[in-house]
Design brief:
homodimer, disordered C terminus, globular, alpha+beta, 6-stranded mixed β-sheet, 444 residues, 8-stranded mixed β-sheet, 20% helix
């Protein structure tokens, strides 16, 4: 529901000029810490973070369950019913937009560049889907030029389980994985991956869960979604090619998944809902359990997604990050509600804090691809960079940054914050003396 | 290390005649509750459960961290170093075998048939391997008669991530999943699975974890294993056949995984270690990161595994469960240490409470197969039962019970407890009036 919290005329006394990512219309939730301090729930506003627990205890947020916002993760908060969450959003919107509340709230603000952001939920299970139809087609074409999409693709929201323990907030080093790679030799070799890749995805955070043995009807699926983040499903293509049959990707993916640490709520994204446009005329309609008219008309999201690359050479000469991908979440073949309904359709129990990846989001042409595998056509057509370098896959020191913006005429644009990682060599002793300059460059 | 706790002459004053599964040489850890009570850590001895937390607070277990054994799950206990765990085992062995300690310990014993057993750990991530080479061959043959094993099988311990949220202790109802099935019609149909199956596996519980980006050398892998359980990886074959390409099984597996609730510790299983015998002469040797001489000589386990089936007709006439499979963990192609070392070889962080399934364990011939898919040759050769019935796949009301025994000459046999489930129709209101008689029959 679009309400007064989305009013484009609303401004915050924290950032009266507005903010590219975190204007008062956004109000994403996250978990942060001061140096050496404990993890705390927070809300992003402009270049500041509001300490939710302190505000709940000291006054401005009385009436809400202080225990839920005092936890070191947001699971308790997102287990709340949608109405309570919406009331909290309305209260925060009022506190941060009404100049008269400034003195009451200001003590609970910390500059964002002075805190560390963490994974916002204790992740119960992490599932990765494959809903980017152009990605599925592009990757399928590398293996099956004449028949890129498998027969199940337009019926089944294809997904698989990923690794929850290795999901990390933006900034975590991307340690190049080692593994078995099979080349021309008869015997595979174990060593560092030579085909390290990124994958541009959206992440979907689950709020309320369902009981084991029950399903989630498509018409109710939206109410189980807490919010969204950006997600980089780092992938080692050489490990993947050798290991993935017959049971799917495993060590090629589970060494790290990076997320943008703010949960941009479903409430904040209400104005950016869009018709499900990625299913071409003539495609089979979704089966009944995935079909909901309202979901088809308003269940997709219009989010612009960019991938930026910084190489060590670019960093050395102070060059700006190069945008290598501009794409959009409208290329997803299945809506978030369809992914949720499918996941629970067999009675599988989703739980608060589950993370679902959409799968890699690519558009139909060059410049819109969400992975280097597609950009470099499997390594055969290296990407030429403005720095004079080229890349088929990622090299040590390369930094990948994913950003996202939800935009719509008549509404204030909101962002997601950074989803960033720098590739580092395995086993090298990576101290902050090495990483800090790389990461500092990104604190915009 | 085999020590005095394995002495075959040792008896417990709790069960001086010994016990088929839980003699004093076993001492498995679990989590139990009294009716309406909270979850508590316990140890099985004969037909009784020792309340660890109460014993730690009241005296007999002083010197151990009472907090760790007072938790509603065993994660803190199994995060202990191996030495501390071994000392606890030695103390428990002494308390339960020395008649002079009876009066001190007896107040903390509860009859096992009066308590409910629960999942013993808060499961962080659940991974399922595919290490049963005969199973992989049998299933592969159904799809590729001339080339059943894929080229990676003898190099890569094939595995994939499963669903942690739907792992349940023995006795949980097996709600028949619905899903997309593709028959002869051009469009798949959504409905209850018609090819519901069991999969006989061992489960491996992880104790100490590793840091993200670090690996676990094969020589250290054993020290990361807390213990073992029986595991039934229920599978819907029709859902699986349609959904599994290209990313592996998903909804066909994640509706339920049943485990035997006692953690039979690595310490208890020391006498039953065996040479790795499932790799035939002429097969390629494991790559260096999976090769350890001691592991090859003593890293496998000799555990007899049986599958028992009870149909509603058998239950109605009071017939005994029919053993439909007798097999052995010696058919696993990879040792538990190899699975652990492989899982962490790319830097993936294992964490305390992770559960690894070995994959379905089958032998080379009929009568030793670990799934109905193999027993019925994909449904083409239904299994004839002594009751006059036949089964290709599971029907509503069918009960599957997996049992396991570790046996070796000169040592006392130890067991795992039950791993049991009854198939129930989806959405039927299954109250305990229906389930209780089915489950009670199994409380031996």
């Amino acid at each position: 529901m679009i309400d007064e919290t989305h009013d484009p005329a609303l401004t915050s006394w924290v950032c009266p000029e507005g903010h590219a990512e975190f204007p008062v219309q956004n109000l994403p939730f996250g978990v942060f810490s001061h140096a050496g301090g404990e993890k705390r729930a927070g809300v992003a506003i402009g270049d500041f973070v509001l300490d939710l627990a302190a505000a709940a205890h000291a006054g401005p947020l009385t009436g809400f369950d202080a225990g839920a916002v005092s936890s070191p993760c947001l699971n308790a908060l997102f287990a709340w019913d949608c109405d309570t969450r919406r009331r909290l959003r309305q209260r925060l919107s009022a506190l941060l937009s009404q100049p008269g509340r400034k003195s009451e709230v200001e003590p609970f603000l910390a500059p964002a560049n002075r805190v560390t952001l963490h994974c916002p939920m204790a992740i119960s299970d992490y599932t990765d889907f494959y809903a980017g139809i152009h990605h599925a087609t592009n990757v399928g074409r590398l293996f099956r030029p004449d028949n890129p999409l498998l027969p199940n693709y337009k019926y089944v929201p294809i997904g698989y389980h990923g690794r929850a323990s290795s999901v990390r907030a933006s900034g975590a080093p991307v340690t190049r994985p080692s593994g078995q790679c099979k080349g021309e030799e008869p015997v595979p070799q174990f060593g560092p991956s030579g085909r390290l890749d990124f994958e541009l995805e959206l992440g979907i955070w689950i709020g309320a869960g369902n009981k084991l043995g029950a399903s989630i009807p498509i018409g109710e699926a939206r109410s189980h979604i807490a919010g969204f983040c950006l997600l980089n499903d780092w992938s080692a293509r050489d490990l993947q090619a050798w290991e993935y049959q017959p049971l799917g990707p495993f060590l090629a993916k589970n060494f790290l998944t990076t997320i943008s640490p703010w949960i941009v709520t479903a409430e904040a994204l209400e104005p950016f809902r869009a018709a499900q446009a990625a299913r071409p005329e003539g495609d089979p309609p979704p089966l009944d359990y995935l079909w909901d008219e309202q979901d088809q008309e308003k269940g997709a999201y219009a989010i612009d997604l960019d991938v930026h690359l910084v190489t060590p050479k670019m960093r050395a000469v102070g060059a700006a990050p190069q945008v290598i991908t501009r794409t959009s979440s409208t290329y997803l073949y299945w809506t978030p509600a369809q992914l949720v309904a499918h996941h629970a359709s067999n009675g599988c129990n989703l739980t608060t804090g589950d993370l679902l990846g959409t799968g890699t989001i690519s558009g139909p042409e060059r410049g819109t691809y969400g992975s280097l595998l597609e950009i470099s056509a499997g390594g055969r057509e290296p990407l030429a960079l403005a720095s004079g370098e080229s890349r088929s896959f990622l090299e040590d020191g390369d930094e990948v940054l994913i950003t996202g913006r939800a935009k719509r005429d008549g509404y204030v644009t909101i962002g997601f914050g950074d989803c960033r990682g720098v590739v580092v060599e395995r086993r090298r002793d990576v101290g902050m003396d090495v990483l800090a300059p790389m990461l500092r460059a990104g604190h915009r």
